[in-house]
Sequence to fold (89 residues):
Amino acid sequence: MKTKDLVIGVLGGIAVGAVLGVLFAPDKGSNTRKKIVDKGNDVTDNFKAQLTAILNKLDNKSEEVASKVDEVVSNEAKRNDLENKVLGI
Fold:
């Protein structure tokens, strides 16, 4: 429960700080809004880039796993063929 309260407190503090920062900003409202939009776009672009990197890693890992599965299946087929030859089937 303490962790939850801490997280809520931190997020609340961030929100209050952002509101106060906008209210007391020395810049014009239009400039402040542009900065907020630009920062939001930067965060979004960064998130997209990180998500793309993670998805690429997952894709590479899935290809590796698929290759290993194909190798195991191929080895199993070879083993079965050899076993059939030895047993004369």
User: Anything to note?
Assistant: Helices lie at 2-23, 29-87. The chain has one domain: 2-87.
